[in-house]
């Protein structure tokens, strides 16, 4: 009879309540093991959507750490909570109408001028971005730098929840990237694709989809072949 | 000489001509200004609360950047940056406990040791280069252009950070003379332009602008020169709002001292960016025969 | 305006707090008025700068309610001119902070018109927000 592999169990505190969970799970899986069901605060489960921000502290350490629940492992003795959503300020603007003059960032997010360069946002970023540097670049009207430094942002909002100046860094970064795409460096591929779309290149495929019933769409989706799709390009 | 240079936010936007004219004219007198890497906004105003620490992080982080670059001196152009950074520096130099707390907070950075000095470009020109040396390099004639220097608040107050006497400064007067222009003696040169009230009390600023600009003008000034992009905005761009409130008001151009210097040293439109000023100085400069008609047309 | 003078007021927590935050000894002021003579915002102030310091000396908390402290431009004219070495600009800041530290802003950032934001240089916004938002 083969030896039963004994999984080591670890102790995690989820929103103040202690749970025993098997070692080696992500925080998200550990929470599910403990009986939590994710209705909000989980999306891609692959580190891309930014829905699963988590804040934790380790035993014997005063610091708070910030991670994605789907990407980082549960650690023995950790105490954690989820922050699925941040009610941060998001300006409304029409990219088409944004003018190049002045500082477009300060126009829509004047609070960027409140940054005190404390670097707390950078410390909170699970993507290890230089968040302070991109906010500072935005303040200096260096759109290119702000766009490039924020490129890997997944909009989790953890920076914003930490900022003493109440800045919504991720929305600022997004605006910087939009302005960058509009004025600084226009994307050739995008223009090409927009032209194709306008000329109706995809109309027949879309029409076909519109005619299918739900079951057929489901089947098409499950049978899709990502590799050959990629090759077809 | 080579020296790291701290620009400040506005010199990358509305104050671009301040930066470009400063770098070019400093170079002409053998100062190579190298922009500091990863500098951040200094906060522009010094926190006056004895129990505050948060607002010193920004200036001190900039001193860490100078230290990282291996220098013990940094030059700045904007009066407000100068004032804020100098006061923060003095504060931590005299209070090792506060310095330690700040260093501990910024644990990801190397510790600031308190050995960096911040100077204003005017000080560098006076003390390291000498106005006499500068005057020998003057190429362009100013043809009796009358210039009123404007110090505002941050270059001379408070006493411990002032680059010159706080009631009777002479540093800009001496530079203007060295550059071959005529100095206008103006008692309003140290008066406040209304500063940040420009955001929510335009009328207060208009009142100040009217008083300050009119005083210079009544004493015969053709232009005002200064060293702060906020003063430039209030005394220059806000002339538009001043005329709306005081219909009898009429203004004069407002320039940075570095633009005057660049002109004197033979440079022009490529570094001065006169196009960024609300009151266009070019017609006056053409009329005085300082720049030529058409010279401004191919300005960037 | 009537003000009740009592030791209770002049030694109140309010006075102590202002002395603590500003780091200034308010009692040094002898009401010479030099600060008010040089203040750029004085034409709009409800109380003159020297009156502000007097009211704080006497523990008059209502000084927080008038616009005077918000009209100060932190120009340091009063600070360099005071013959008694009082830095009134620090007292003004301490008074503003009593309000700001309660998470109340004087500048309503969201009310600044967007066409103004297009012309205002960063230096104006940064300094204004540092002095008038919490
Ligand atoms: S920048 Fe902010 S929102 Fe973007 S990934 Fe980092 S913490 Fe999340
Ligand atoms: S947390 Fe906020 S104030 Fe601090 S550096 Fe980041 S954006 Fe600036
Ligand atoms: S100048 Fe000084 S002593 Fe005179 S009233 Fe003002 S604060 Fe008081
Ligand atoms: S610091 Fe404030 S109170 Fe003092 S003179 Fe200047 S504006 Fe007036
Ligand atoms: S669930 Fe999408 S990033 Fe974690």
Summarize the structure.
Chain A is α+β, with helices and mostly antiparallel strands and 233 residues long.
**Tell me, what's the shape of chain A?**
flat
> Based on DSSP secondary structure assignment, what is the total number of beta strands of chain B?
8
Q: How many domains make up the coordinates of chain A?
A: 3
Global mean pLDDT of chain B: 95
CATH class of the largest domain in chain B: Alpha Beta
Q: Give me the secondary-structure category of chain A.
A: alpha+beta
Largest sheet entry of chain B: 4 strands, parallel
Write down the Rg of chain B: 19 Å
How are helices and strands ordered from N to C of chain A?
Answer: EEHEEEHHHHHHHHHH
Indicate the proportion of strand residues of chain A. Answer: 5-15%
Quaternary organisation: heterotrimer
How many E-type strands of chain A? 5
What does this structure look like?
The complex is a heterotrimer of chains A (233), B (300) and C (134). With 233 residues, chain A is α+β, with helices and mostly antiparallel strands. Chain A has helices at 27-33, 104-108, 120-124, 131-139, 143-149, 158-162, 169-184, 188-198, 203-211, 214-222, 226-232; strands at residues 9-14, 17-22, 53-57, 65-68, 79-82. Chain A has a five-stranded mixed β-sheet with strand order 2-1-5-3-4, covered by helices on one side. The longest helix of chain A has 16 residues, at 169-184. The radius of gyration of chain A is 22 Å and the shape is flat. Chain B has 300 residues and is of the alpha/beta class. Chain B is 42% helix and 10% strand. Chain B contains 13 helices and eight strands. Chain B has helices at residues 16-28, 57-68, 79-94, 96-105, 121-129, 131-136, 171-178, 202-218, 229-237, 239-245, 257-264, 269-272, 282-287, and strands spanning 2-6, 32-35, 73-76, 117-120, 146-149, 182-183, 223-226, 254-256. Chain B has a four-stranded parallel β-sheet with strand order 2-1-3-4, sandwiched between helices. Chain B has a four-stranded parallel β-sheet with strand order 6-5-7-8, sandwiched between helices. In chain B, helix 1 (16-28) links the parallel strand 1 and strand 2. The longest helix of chain B has 17 residues, at 202-218. Chain B is globular. The model of chain B has no long low-confidence stretch (mean pLDDT 95). Chain C is mainly α and 134 residues long. Chains B and C meet through helix 8 and helix 9 of B and helix 2, helix 6, helix 7 and helix 9 of C. Bound molecules: iron/sulfur cluster (4 copies) and FE2/S2 (inorganic) cluster (FES). Residues 124-125, 127, 129, 131, 153-159, 169-170 of chain A line the site of one iron/sulfur cluster. One iron/sulfur cluster (SF4) binds next to helix 3 and helix 4 of chain A.
